[in-house]
Design the sequence.
């Protein structure tokens, strides 16, 4: 991985963590390993908020079939990177 | 991109549901200019199809089914996305003599496995020989169909490319089925409601002529999922049978951007739309994102509510918030219905708004009688329930007691219904069918309520069913998942819901454990939170209880009703309070409740 790619990757992760802070009432440290439903207070309504905010932030569309696969912050970051690359 | 279909037909007279089959209704609607419009998640028009276009494509596909030698009566399972393809396949089945089986869409984070399992059980129970899903979801369907006898499975385009020339049309006739709908039953034992052509045409006629009193100039908007009876019957089949134009927004899009629903209604002058209470709540919650006065909701004359308990304060908030948009709260129309009666049972009178009946809490709890509360009964001594209107013409509602005897007004009992819209039964499940019909042929809805001044009032459900954000959740599904994830043996987990004074439900899971190890208990809490989110899409509360906290019936079955009563009375000890707060995970083992963020 080149340095630029590495920093873009970090940027995506950082932005996602910022957006997720709204759903982190217990102020845990959000990392790639953080489980969206078990560690954060994200129910289905909040999930749609998160997805919408991420879509607007990165100007991408997260496909419906990917939502069921999203368990961790890492999964979320990977979907965003994949969509950014496709877009 | 083409323009939206018009609100009214030019020369074709409005015929309100006067048809014997769905195919006949679509044949008539296809002679006009009205139809269906599909909007993107940001509100842009993606596709507009007149009923004429939908019929043409459906007929073509039906011919292809016939040419492929698919026998009449076979079931076609289809993931019910809000898309032209779903409509085309549903109607093609009507012309080809096949029975469509709409399947749900998953939106829960991390819910893939639970979703595939659900699809699989539904396809198996319906003995589906054909299965269709859009390109994004066909992978789930393939996973779900593994090992089942599905002869044709694919994305819509694979079916459209089949040769159709010379294929014969063999429409479903008035005494045949129309579709199978999964709206009740647990994940492992889903119950498919078999709705006949007679039932759907009778219901669509009653809704069009009486419930909505449709007239030229009406236009509907819908974000409700088409695998749900309120979406499928209310906002797909009823509009076809009454030649009404529909503006569609996908449910997933609505969940992300609720206000797009209102923008579409404003822009296109829609007069009819329905939602469970939570849909109105979502709009109010995000109303800060727009200026309400930029919307025109003054033409919205039927703002229906159904699908879960009607919560008056939420509706009041919505009306206040969007008064600046010209929304009139007398447009609210509380209604009652269920898939087992196709959809609609009762509507409140149009133009009246939400009316409640305030009753004494004590008489309600002690003797199951709904006695009006004195003058200004306080919130402690009284509780208000929403009136849901009288039975549609040709339909009857009775409240019955434990021995199936009819009860007088203001006595609380089982809500039972009869009439032409009743389902024939659950598909291929005589035992489940017998369990819901009374000996004299009425349907026991499983809901509790009473009658007053000819109107139905729903007070709750006696079944263990949990409903959150309009979604049905079976407690045993949650319990099994918690048992397997936490490695506890069956009978040590109980799931139920408790509601607040307006019927908003919150999931509670009680887990019995001997463990006092903080790490183990914390792991339980994590697993349970994740199970509830994946299966129900909402948060919940976990109570970690010592052994023998749960009650069993004499036949050895877990009593959720007793667990709930014990929980509400504070008789279940919660050992999580003894845990030391961990440094990096949640400071409390109790999880945040409710759907709020």
Sequence:
């Amino acid at each position: 991985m080149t340095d630029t790619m590495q920093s873009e990757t970090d940027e995506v992760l950082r932005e996602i963590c910022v957006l997720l802070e709204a759903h982190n009432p217990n102020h845990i440290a959000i990392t790639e390993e953080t489980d969206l439903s078990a560690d954060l207070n994200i129910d289905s309504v909040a999930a749609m908020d998160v997805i919408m905010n991420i879509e607007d932030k990165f100007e991408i569309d997260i496909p419906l079939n990917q939502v069921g696969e999203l368990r961790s912050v890492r999964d979320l970051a990977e979907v965003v990177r994949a969509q950014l690359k496709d877009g | 991109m083409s323009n939206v279909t018009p609100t009214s037909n030019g020369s074709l007279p409005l015929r309100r549901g006067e048809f014997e089959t769905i195919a006949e209704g679509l044949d008539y609607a296809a002679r006009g200019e009205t139809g269906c419009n599909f909007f993107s998640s940001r509100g842009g028009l993606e596709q507009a199809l007149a009923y004429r276009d939908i019929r043409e494509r459906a007929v073509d596909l039906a011919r292809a089914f016939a040419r492929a030698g698919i026998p009449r009566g076979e079931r076609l399972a289809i993931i019910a996305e809000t898309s032209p393809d779903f409509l085309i396949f549903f109607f093609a089945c009507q012309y080809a003599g096949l029975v469509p089986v709409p399947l749900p869409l998953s939106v829960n984070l991390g819910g893939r496995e639970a979703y595939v399992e659900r699809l699989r059980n539904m396809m198996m129970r319906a003995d589906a020989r054909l299965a269709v899903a859009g390109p994004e979801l066909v992978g789930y369907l393939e996973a779900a169909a593994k090992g089942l006898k599905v002869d044709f499975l694919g994305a819509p385009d694979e079916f459209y490319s089949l040769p159709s020339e010379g294929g014969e049309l063999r429409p479903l006739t008035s005494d045949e089925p129309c579709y199978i709908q999964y709206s009740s039953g647990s994940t492992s034992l889903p119950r498919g409601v078999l709705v006949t052509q007679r039932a759907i045409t009778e219901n669509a006629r009653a809704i069009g002529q009486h419930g909505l009193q449709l007239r030229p100039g009406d236009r509907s908007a819908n974000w409700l999922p088409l695998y749900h009876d309120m979406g499928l019957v209310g906002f797909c089949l009823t509009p076809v049978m009454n030649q009404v134009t529909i503006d569609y927004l996908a449910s997933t899009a609505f969940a992300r951007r609720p206000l797009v629903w209102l923008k579409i209604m404003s822009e296109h002058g829609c007069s009819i739309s329905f939602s469970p209470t939570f849909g109105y709540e979502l709009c109010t919650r995000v109303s800060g994102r727009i200026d309400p006065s930029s919307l025109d909701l003054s033409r919205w004359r039927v703002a229906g509510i159904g699908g879960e308990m009607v919560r008056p304060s939420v509706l009041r908030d919505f009306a206040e918030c969007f008064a600046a948009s010209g929304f009139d709260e007398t447009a609210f129309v509380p209604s009652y219905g269920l898939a087992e009666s196709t959809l609609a049972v009762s509507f409140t009178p149009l133009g009246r708004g939400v009316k409640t009946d305030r009753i004494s809490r004590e008489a309600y709890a002690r003797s199951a009688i709904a006695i009006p509360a004195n003058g200004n009964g306080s919130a402690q001594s009284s509780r208000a329930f929403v009136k849901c209107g009288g039975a549609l013409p040709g339909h009857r509602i009775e409240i019955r007691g434990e021995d199936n005897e009819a009860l007088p007004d203001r006595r609380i009992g089982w809500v039972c219904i009869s009439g032409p819209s009743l389902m024939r039964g659950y598909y291929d499940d005589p035992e489940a069918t017998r369990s819901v019909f009374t000996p004299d042929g009425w349907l026991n809805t499983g809901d509790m309520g009473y009658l007053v001044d000819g109107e139905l009032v729903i007070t709750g459900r006696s079944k263990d069913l949990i409903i959150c954000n309009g979604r049905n959740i079976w407690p045993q599904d949650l319990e099994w998942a918690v048992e397997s994830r936490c490695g506890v043996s069956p009978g040590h987990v109980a799931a139920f819901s408790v509601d607040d004074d307006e019927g908003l439900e919150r999931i509670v899971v009680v887990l019995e454990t001997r463990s006092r190890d903080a790490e183990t208990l914390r792991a339980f809490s994590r697993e349970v939170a994740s199970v509830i989110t994946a299966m129900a899409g909402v948060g919940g509360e976990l109570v970690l209880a010592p052994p023998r906290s749960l009650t069993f019936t004499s036949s050895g079955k877990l009593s959720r009703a007793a667990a709930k009563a014990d929980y509400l009375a504070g008789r279940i000890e919660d050992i999580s309070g003894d845990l030391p707060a961990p440094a990096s995970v949640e400071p409390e083992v109790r999880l945040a409740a409710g759907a709020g963020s």
Summary: Chain A has one domain: 3-86. The mean pLDDT of chain A is 82. Chain A has four helices and no strands. The CA atoms of residues 60 and 84 of chain A lie 7 Å apart.
